[in-house]
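Below is how a single chain appears once it has passed through the pipeline. First comes the sequence as given, then the structure the pipeline wrote out for it. We keep one example in the README because the format questions we get most often are answered faster by looking than by reading.
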Amino acid sequence: MGPSLARGEPTGLRVRIASAVALAPLPLAAIWFEGAWLMSVAALAGTAMAWEWGRLCRGEVGRGFAAGAVEITLISVVLATVLISAAGAEGVAVAVAVIGSGVIFAMARQRPGGEPLLTALGALWIAIPCISFLWLARAEHGGREILLWLLAVVWATDIGAYAIGRSIGGPRLAPRWSPRKTWAGFVGGMVCAALAGGTAALALRVPPVLPLVLASTGLAIVAQLGDLAESLAKRRFGVKDSSGLIPGHGGLLDRLDGLLAVIPVVALTTWISGHDVLLWR
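Resulting structure:
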């Protein structure tokens, strides 16, 4: 195979599907039952990702589960934003995230090694999607239906990009960031997301179907850019996975990188337009 081509074994696809099947019940149940269940899952996911990011920036991936003062502060900031958002004060939560990231930057500068700026930006990268997720969960912003649609689109993008990219191969998308991703996979993720969006529109009886298909296709691009951003971060720190939290699958950041990019975009679009995305015409 030439240097401009990329193909892979079917094992990776099975791992991704198995990962989705294993992890899907928890967020799906939380979305369905809402309330305290949804807040608890957001808090749990936010805590895990904050821990992973803090240790990634400090270069301690694979060295046990201990966390230093910066990691504990990062976790605390994310947890605080989740709790405040759950109480319906999203504006305050955003302010806490911004102020908290500044505190984290100052703390990280005082210790040897690490990446103070990236560590601080990680607080926003994790907290803002958590805030947006709980904001979208409110009925007036889309509620259960929009969250289920987002999960379907992101999962379809991830599996479709991997399956088609590895099957077809071809020119690589961004070899300096993520050597295995291809243009074929990029387009394949968009196609699968469009199919997921169309299916969601029919299942939710949202007429017409085309706007949701187009929105899903656009979000597939956003999700894959989020995936590339996390790949770039891991490449910078010289690691394959953000952690070994999920045996055989890497870390939670590895599984949720696309969702972290998509959720704030949908929340911002909903806020600006004043309409639930599922009701677009």
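The chain has two domains: 1-34+143-281, 35-136.

See the next section for the split statistics.
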